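User: Hi! I have a protein structure encoded as tokens and I'd like to know what sequence might fold into it. I'm fairly new to this, so please keep things simple.
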């Protein structure tokens, strides 16, 4: 979501239809899907072709698969039968019992109660609703009937388990939420029990009524409801609301003017919902439930454990954090955006008689430099573990904002210390690398490329272009880390790379010279033959950091096409040099710390050639480079082809060695024909 990029895409054949949501097996990191109701597919992230993935045809139609973090996936069939995935895969064609008849499943969920998975689902038949509770490992099944009420038809359900009791919440058509309690204790009664509904919450406030479509439980005292808020004499407006069920109050709400799909998901203190045409992610944090908080009369001095309830917004440049207001217990800002990478969020806990993170940073906005840095260091040392990353992200944001407003200010050592010692990411401080680029701080950029896992391709390209354009004299005055190059680039005192003799695996220049149509002048042959490094060690170390960074080819390629031709040729020469160096080694691995791998080198070479092939073919200075690269790759292909020819003989030798008596000494001569 933060990178706005597809990480994987799989499709079924034409005519096939995915008939239930795909889930991830959290234990094996495999995806599980069902198409055409009965065909089960299981695959991993590295699998490309879904048609070649594991396939099992089941004997009954699947309604839904639920994945439990510790209990594995469980499969709910349309007829009400439940199986764990392990049991189902042992015999895919096993008979599935019919638990329900002429009933349609309206909602289902799975939970862990102790070590046992529990599946709960609600069915409907002729306006009546039934609740089923199954424990597949214990072959336990209980059926209940929901108390019928003519004026309140259930629209949406959610549930949670505590102390062997299921609390089922029903969002009903009369703009109310009802609570139903179901015991998980074994009950010997055979008669169908009727579950009584108790009113939990009326979705109305100040004359406005919320027509809810979906709800989720946040904690024991709070629920979130997505729906349409209708006020007398006004048009209904779709909004996300959070309610305090203990005190029957609306805690906070957010209007969604672009409309929603009516679905709301909640996972790890984040809301997920479709707003317009984008997926919106909103972070929240539950506050301590108290009457003062519920009616909005909470004061900072009385609430040591209360924090902002919802972060609706990404922070603008002038806003450092979302902080508590003196008369409010929640902070309402503008719409949450799709791009989480631009978030600089701090959910800061308010301490008694002290300022929140947001208030402190705002108070330091115009403070002298030494005061600012001292206060920020103290803030990082006092930050609590749950909020540590967000607090440090806010600190870096405060420093970069100061750099923007004051061009002469740049705390290089302070920023380096934070990046090197803290577990940061690009999304926590998105302006840091931009400021470092502006200041030509290549050392900080190198550290960021090595440590940040979520750098956008546009920023990766900007770093590459800067590293290729900065002069060697400037680089030699910097503190670039040379650990990735010092083991394979020999440096003399004058900082010139020593040319070493290269003996490539299977490559002989004399044998292959006549196979290439391009004649290379002897005086220029050494520039592109891969024997000497075309860049100095400082530039090489920076380029290695770029080669090591994560990227998506789809998003990087358009930026690479903008790289100037001469810089592209220089980078390709360096990649070719690395390729030759890797080929010297039997294990094709470069020595050193964080040195590029052979796969990374080849991927970047392919990317660069895809982006600039036409230009390189036209440039005379690139012709010898392409020619040498072509010869070397062709020699490698021929060498491995020859190895493949004797693979069978080598395996036979290995087999004979196993059969031979190891205690007998002998000398044998074997001819490989």
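Assistant: Happy to help. Inverse folding works backwards from shape to sequence: for each of the 673 positions I chose a residue that suits the local structure. Here it is:
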């Amino acid at each position: 979501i933060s990178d706005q990029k597809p990480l994987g895409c799989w499709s079924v054949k034409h005519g096939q239809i995915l008939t239930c949501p795909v889930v991830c097996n959290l234990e094996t990191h495999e995806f599980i899907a069902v198409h055409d109701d009965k065909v089960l597919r299981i695959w991993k992230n590295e699998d490309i072709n879904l048609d070649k993935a594991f396939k099992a045809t089941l004997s009954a139609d699947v309604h839904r698969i639920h994945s439990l973090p510790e209990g594995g996936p469980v499969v709910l069939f349309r007829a009400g039968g439940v199986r764990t995935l392990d049991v189902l895969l042992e015999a895919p064609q096993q008979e599935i019992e019919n638990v329900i008849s002429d009933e349609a499943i309206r909602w289902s969920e799975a939970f862990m109660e102790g070590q046992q998975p529990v599946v709960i689902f609600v069915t409907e038949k002729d306006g009546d609703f039934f609740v089923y509770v199954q424990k597949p490992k214990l072959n336990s099944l209980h059926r209940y009937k929901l108390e019928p009420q003519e004026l309140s038809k259930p629209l949406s359900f959610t549930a949670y388990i505590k102390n062997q009791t299921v609390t089922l919440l029903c969002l009903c058509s009369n703009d109310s939420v009802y609570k139903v309690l179901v015991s998980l204790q074994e009950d010997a009664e055979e008669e169908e029990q009727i579950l009584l509904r108790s009113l939990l919450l009326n979705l109305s406030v100040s004359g406005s009524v919320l027509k809810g479509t979906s709800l989720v439980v946040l904690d024991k005292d709070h629920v979130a409801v997505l729906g349409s808020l209708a006020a007398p004499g006004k048009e209904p407006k779709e909004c996300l609301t959070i309610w305090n069920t203990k005190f029957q109050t609306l805690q906070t709400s957010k209007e969604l003017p672009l409309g929603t799909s009516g679905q709301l998901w909640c996972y790890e203190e984040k809301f997920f919902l479709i707003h317009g045409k984008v997926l919106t992610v909103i972070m929240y944090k539950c506050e301590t439930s108290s009457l003062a908080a519920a009616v909005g009369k909470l004061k900072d001095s009385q609430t040591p454990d209360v924090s902002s309830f919802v972060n609706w917004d990404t922070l603008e440049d002038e806003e450092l954090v979302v902080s508590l207001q003196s008369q409010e217990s929640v902070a309402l800002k503008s719409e949450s955006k799709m791009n989480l990478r631009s978030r600089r969020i701090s959910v800061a806990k308010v301490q008694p008689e002290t300022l929140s993170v947001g208030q402190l940073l705002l108070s330091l906005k115009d403070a002298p430099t030494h005061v600012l840095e001292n206060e920020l260091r103290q803030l990082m040392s006092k930050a609590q573990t749950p909020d540590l990353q967000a607090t440090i992200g806010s600190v870096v944001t405060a420093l970069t904002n100061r750099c923007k407003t004051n061009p002469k200010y740049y705390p290089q050592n302070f920023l380096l210390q934070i990046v090197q010692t803290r577990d940061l990411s690009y999304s926590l401080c998105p302006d840091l690398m931009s400021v470092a680029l502006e200041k030509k701080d290549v050392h900080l950029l190198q550290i960021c490329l090595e440590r940040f896992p979520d750098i956008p391709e546009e920023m990766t390209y900007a770093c590459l272009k800067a590293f290729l354009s900065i002069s060697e004299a400037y680089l030699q005055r910097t503190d670039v880390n040379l650990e990735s190059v010092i083991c394979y680039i020999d440096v003399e005192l004058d900082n010139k790379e020593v040319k070493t003799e290269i003996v490539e695996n299977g490559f002989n220049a004399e044998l292959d010279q006549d196979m290439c149509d391009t004649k290379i002048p002897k005086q220029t042959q050494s520039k592109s033959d891969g024997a000497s490094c075309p860049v100095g060690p400082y530039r090489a170390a920076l380029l290695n950091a770029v080669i090591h960074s994560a990227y998506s080819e789809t998003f990087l390629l358009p930026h690479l096409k903008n790289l100037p031709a001469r810089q592209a040729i220089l980078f390709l020469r360096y990649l070719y040099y690395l390729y030759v160096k890797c080929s010297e080694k039997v294990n094709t691995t470069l020595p050193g710390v964080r040195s590029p791998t052979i796969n990374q080198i080849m991927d970047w070479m392919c990317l660069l050639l895809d982006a600039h092939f036409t230009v390189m073919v036209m440039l005379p200075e690139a012709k010898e480079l392409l020619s040498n690269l072509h010869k070397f790759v062709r020699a490698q292909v021929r060498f491995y082809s020859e190895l493949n020819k004797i693979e069978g003989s080598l395996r036979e030798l290995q087999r004979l060695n196993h059969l031979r008596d190891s205690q007998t000494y002998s000398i044998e001569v074997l001819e490989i024909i």
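A useful reference point when you look it over: Confidence is low (pLDDT under 50) at residues 297-309, 311-354, 492-527. Feel free to ask if any position seems puzzling.
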